[in-house]
User: Fold this.
Amino acid sequence: GSGGGVARGEPVGSGGGVVTGELVGTLVAGFDGWRANLHRLVVHPQWRRRGLGLALVEEAERRLVAQGAKRAGAMVVLEDARALDFWGAAGYALQAGTRRHVKNLT
Assistant:
C-alpha cells in the first residue's frame, strides 16, 4: 500500500481457541500497516496435534489479510524443533539473512 506506517494499521490482537468453555490455545497477531507478525502461539498440551494451532494461525492470517497484509512473519525459537516443524508445515519458511535485535528497556 501507499504510505504504510503505524497509524494505518489496526491491532489484530490475540486469538483464542475455546473448547467446552476452556481456553486451550492462544496466538498474538499484529499488523502495523507494513508488517504482519505472529507471536506466542500456545496450545495446551492435552489439545495439541488436533489442528487447533493451525486453526488459530489461519484465523489470524484471515484477519491480517482483511487489514491489507500481504505477508506475515512468525517469531520462532530456532532450538525448538517442534515449533520449526509446525511453522514449516503451515507454509512459513526461515528467512535467510535476518537476525532479531533486542534491547532491555528497564
Notes: The first helix runs from residue 52 to 66. Helices lie at 52-66, 81-89. Residues 17 and 52 are 7 Å apart (CA to CA). Strands lie at 13-19, 22-31, 36-43, 72-74.
